[in-house]
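Why does residue order matter? Because the sequence determines the fold. Keep that principle in mind as you read this record.
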Amino acid sequence: MRASSKKKVLVFDSGVGGLSVFQEIHRLLPYMDYLYLFDNEAYPYGELDQDVLISRVNQLVSALVEDHQVDIVVIACNTASTIVLPSLRESLSIPVVGVVPAIKPASLLASQGVGLIATPATVTRQYTHELIRDFAQGKPVELLGSTRLVDMAEEKLRGQSISMNELKTILSPLRDKVDVAVLGCTHFPLMKEEIHQALDGEVTLIDSGEAIARRVKALLFNQEIEESKEEGAKKIYASAPPWEEDALNVCLAKLGFNPVQVYRHPGVLDR
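Structure:
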């Protein structure tokens, strides 16, 4: 089968956290073509006005879908998923998959309590509290919102070491209160081992990556995918030159990606 006939998966995030979702999808579907786009020019999304966020994501994703004939879009960002999915699904004719904190599976596993580790925007959003109300099974849920954890994941992907003392301090509010914790930001699985260690190895960590991968597979196979024997292409784009670009590209190469390219499309995000 020619590479051009492979299904194309677009994974989108404000930063590199969505690479954790890409890894889960790629593990399940290694023979697809993958595009990754991160809107680092507007990072972090939790600080954006809602109308601005909707406009940015719709413009960037729609343009890349058109340019590359994408078959399915994965919005690998909790903030964008809770705000942008309705408008994006209305404007696109292809499937759009979002992410939400895995409150339900975590609650089914927990006997003591559930921790939700996320960004400040996610832990304060009404959507998150509705998830807890509807799916926490009556288990107590401890909320921990941290922007610093997102930055630490970005730093790790650029080869910088994580301070375990700092990580333990950030996660200390969960200590002795929960036995299951939800990684409610796609950045956090990138440092899952460190988070597990910082919680003394006694807390089960849950994220949405595997569930998203299964959903993508189900949607694509409904379109009668023809399997290939060769891995597909992997291209990564950013909305602005990324910081520590050389260090980032070293890590990206290990995941099979080309060096980051700045994505420019006529008329998109013009100011």
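The beta strands are 8-13, 33-38, 72-75, 96-98, 114-118, 141-145, 180-183, 204-206, 234-238, 261-262.
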